[in-house]
Amino acid sequence: MELWNAITSKSPSPSHFYDEMFDGNSVRPHYAKVQSILSRLSFEERAARQSTMNRRLLEEGITFTLAQSEQPDALERTIPFDFVPRIIPSEEWDTIEQGVSQRVRALNLFLQDVYHEQNIFKDGLIPRRMIMGNRYFRTEMMRLSVPGGVYVNASGIDLIRDDHGKYFVLEDNLRSPSGFSYIYKSRSIMTHDFPELYFSHSVRGIDHSLSAFRAALRNLAPGDKADPVIALLTPGSFNSAYFEHTFLAQQMGLELVEGRDLVCRDNKIYIRGLSGLKKVDVIYRRIDDDYLDPLAFRPDSMLGVAGLMNAYRFGNVAIANAPGTGVADDKAIYSFVPDMIRYYLNESPILSNVPTYLMSRPEEREYVLERLDQMVVKETSLSGGYGMLIGPSSTEQERMRFAEKIRENPDNYIAQPTIQLSTAPICLDGRMSSRHIDLRVFALMNGRNVHVLPGGLTRVAMKEGSLVVNSSQGGGCKDTWVLTR
Questions:
Q1: Is the pTM of this model over 0.85?
Q2: Which CATH number fits domain 355-417: 1.20.120.160, 3.40.30.10, 3.40.190.10, 3.30.1490.270?
Q3: Fewest C-beta atoms under 10 Å: which of 9, 297, 314, 377?
Q4: Where is the Circularly permuted ATP-grasp type domain (predicted)?
Q5: How does residue 223 score in pLDDT terms, banded at 50, 70 and 90?
Q6: Mean local confidence (pLDDT), 220-233
């Protein structure tokens, strides 16, 4: 038992944060089998097993590109994977699943409203200027009907837990959320390299979620084509998530293409091939709006397809997620999502937001500026851990610089109180330690139905004490198990 005694002796008291595996010095019931199995492994056995898993990641090319500011000499590396799973009891998952589904439905209705009737502005729930001046709002989408009325086919909703174990939504990712592939690779590694641990639990399967994903894309296709051509549009092999693009294309039977592989003819999109042109019905894009079509957006884009938006307007091709969805995952708009749920669904929010201060409101701005050392400040249009100030770990100089930025452009920033993300044990070179984690839950929308992938992606802040879990900032991942009972 020395392994588990070492973990609990290093863990801060429960008043500081919620530990997924331990309740004080006691192991939570749903982790009992994990404790039983791992406590029988020696230091050398744990280190050897971790080494085997890391080698598999390297051999399979499961990589992500780091931010240059963090690792200037090692831009691309394997995702750190930890073999101690994150386990979610069935009844706990039911609440998460219902809350994520509710949120995604409301966000989709918000996008439908914003680009058509704009009733939410007329009724005074959200200031019109916050949308019309948003960098992700696309006038090209006004009054344009999207296939099936679905703007957000695939979304990633980031959840955290406070020191009492309550779940909060931290962010909504609606443009082209990454992480699907790491869920499947994490599961593959656990079943292959640690079967005695995985098969000792009754875990909900995830394989059917890829079928649900493909079905959601297929149902966007124009007409009643029995076997539509679906293409995944990638920026190319230098993109940080290129492994995921290739994985999804292979697993779902999609054509993996770059912009140069496509051409627009008569307002239709085709793949160039040795045997001629092949018409594309659906494009699952993994590039930002700005680069989709040089005729509609950035004229210097080399990643998109000239004429794509015209083909989209004519209904000859579907795009997932729809252009313009980014306006709904802006960090300032995030603060209004609970109101959207009440407004569009006439329901009470199942999952709460983290309390959020809008810097565009003078009284909230001054409150935050007086307490920057206690706050997390985020630039509204950025993601991936960029453009953030984490007050408790910042220097006075960093806080002064952010205060100046906030005063210069208050609309560009929000602030939230620092929540000490829940922790979970991880294995580092055979030794057990504790790190902060979050949970990205993926939802797939098909018509009015929302499929929530069981478990999602648990992201790990690999640096001790760090709250930054993003892969682009050096974060790792765990397999996430939802128990069937």
A1: yes
A2: 3.30.1490.270
A3: 9
A4: 85-461
A5: confident
A6: 92
